[in-house]
């Protein structure tokens, strides 16, 4: 895969520079960042250990064929999620523009941890690692009022509560001055030869309407389906509640609505999503899904200052032992960043124990914050977040805690910004591996970034 990525990039560059200049326009762009940060006690204890779990059962003795009892014990390793490092990310964009109606779009990504012990990384001494990733590559063309995007592409839906990731598939949209009507199909899992029933697909429509007076409406309907989820589950691709029986047929639906209103001073938004469907299990049985998510927020522009408030609620499973799934769960592709510590933020490697991170489920959270610009090149943002689990965890705890975030952004020069970030979480007992928080997590760091 790594060799294929390098060969693909080289081939694209050769084609770009050898084709006649009049044939098409070469458009280059990119993004680069370097971060240095430290986070501490993200599992709620400076000496946190992974839970010790004992499993008992029966298995077949491969030599004798007899059924024998067995017991295994796992866990107990130190795991405070302390981390101090410097890393770099580079994204390079290349678009071949043949006309205003036809483009070939590509994005490549390279990541490195400075001093990376992984021999494939380029952050080690010598810097010869192979770390080129194909992020996106697709054809983007118009045929009349219909736009087609075919290939591996980015897709955002429902502010990331349903999707904010890259997918392989097709996105087709009819547009006019008042509305856009896109339909999409993305491949989530390919079963392989003679295993078509294991294919997993995502279908949907997401029309948007400009209703005037700065009001926009975006309803959507998404269908996630497979005739056989056993391989998908075995590959660890599913974030549905794990069961002893392999999953089989799945039909899961999401219906939602985004509403945005923007005035001269005040802006408002709302998102509501309902999820339903069924999943079958082998050898028999099934589970019904009924879940929901609500989110909203407001911002007020007051000249040199901006005030904002945000909040969301995603249902949890009130009884894990019944035959229903009540937790709002998106199968794959969901990514909604929120706070710095509990919700990834700028330094998005770890989040604290108990938090769903950007995979919003079984949680409610509320935020108040403000951004102040004392000068043209400097902005300072402060945020307060409070979060709880919607349903108690296995230790009968639900409080994740109160988080304070502070970020200063300074524009060093055109396209080059410096961010300095500090965050502290007054953690509740749901922020722990054992239901008993001992230490409050904190994070400090800086990021230098440019885009072009």
Total beta strands? 22
**Strand percentage:** over 45%
The coarse silhouette is globular
Helix content: under 10%
The helix count comes to: 2
Order of helices and strands: HEEEEEEEEEEEEHEEEEEEEEEE
**Main sheet summary:** 20 strands, mixed
The average pLDDT is 88
> Any idea what the radius of gyration is?
24 Å
Describe the structure.
- By secondary structure, the protein is mainly beta.
- The chain has a domain at 54-79.
- Helix content is 5%, strand content 56%.
- It is built from 2 helices and 22 strands.
- The strands form 2 sheets. The protein has a 20-stranded mixed β-sheet that branches.
- Strand 15 (286-302) and strand 16 (305-314) form a beta hairpin.
- The chain is globular.
- The two termini are 28 Å apart.
- Mean pLDDT is 88; it is low at 1-5.
């Amino acid at each position: 895969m790594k060799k294929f990525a390098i060969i693909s990039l080289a081939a694209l560059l050769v084609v770009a520079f050898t084709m006649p200049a009049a044939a098409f326009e070469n458009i280059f762009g990119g993004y680069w960042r370097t971060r240095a940060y430290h986070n501490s006690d993200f599992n709620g204890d400076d000496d946190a250990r992974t839970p010790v779990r004992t499993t008992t059962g029966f298995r077949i003795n491969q030599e004798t064929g007899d059924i024998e009892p067995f017991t295994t014990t796992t866990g107990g390793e130190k795991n405070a999620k302390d981390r101090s490092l410097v890393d770099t990310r580079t994204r390079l964009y290349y678009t071949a523009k043949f006309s205003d109606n036809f483009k070939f779009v590509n994005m490549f990504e390279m990541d490195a941890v400075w001093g990376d012990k992984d021999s494939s990384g380029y952050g080690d001494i010598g810097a010869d690692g192979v770390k080129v990733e194909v992020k996106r590559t697709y054809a983007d063309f118009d045929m009349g009022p219909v736009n087609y995007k075919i290939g591996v592409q980015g897709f955002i839906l429902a502010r990331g509560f349903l999707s904010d990731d890259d997918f392989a598939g097709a996105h087709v949209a009819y547009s006019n001055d008042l509305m856009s009507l896109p339909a999409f199909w993305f491949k989530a899992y390919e079963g392989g030869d003679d295993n078509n029933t294991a294919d997993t697909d995502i279908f949907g429509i997401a029309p948007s309407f400009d209703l005037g007076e700065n009001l926009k409406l975006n309803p959507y309907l998404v269908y996630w389906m497979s005739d056989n989820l056993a391989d998908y589950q075995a590959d660890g691709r599913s974030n549905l509640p794990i069961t002893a029986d392999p999953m089989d047929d799945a039909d899961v639906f999401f219906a939602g609505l985004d509403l945005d209103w923007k005035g001269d001073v005040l802006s408002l938004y709302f998102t509501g999503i309902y999820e339903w469907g069924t999943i079958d299990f082998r050898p028999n049985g099934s589970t019904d899904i009924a879940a929901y998510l609500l989110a909203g927020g407001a911002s007020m522009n007051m000249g040199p200052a901006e005030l904002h408030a945000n909040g969301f609620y995603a249902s949890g499973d009130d009884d894990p032992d019944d035959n229903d799934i009540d937790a709002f769960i998106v199968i794959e592709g969901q990514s909604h960043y929120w706070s710095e510590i509990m919700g990834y933020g700028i330094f998005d490697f770890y989040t604290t124990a108990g938090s769903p991170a950007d995979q919003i489920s079984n949680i409610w959270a509320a935020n108040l914050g403000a951004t102040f610009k004392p000068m043209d090149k400097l902005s300072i943002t402060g945020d307060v977040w409070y979060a709880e689990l919607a349903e108690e965890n296995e230790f009968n705890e639900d409080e994740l805690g109160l988080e304070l975030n502070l970020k200063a952004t300074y524009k060093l020069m055109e396209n080059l910004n410096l961010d300095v970030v500090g965050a502290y979480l007054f953690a509740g007992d749901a922020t722990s591996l054992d239901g008993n928080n001992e230490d409050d997590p904190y994070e400090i760091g800086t990021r230098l970034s440019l885009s072009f």
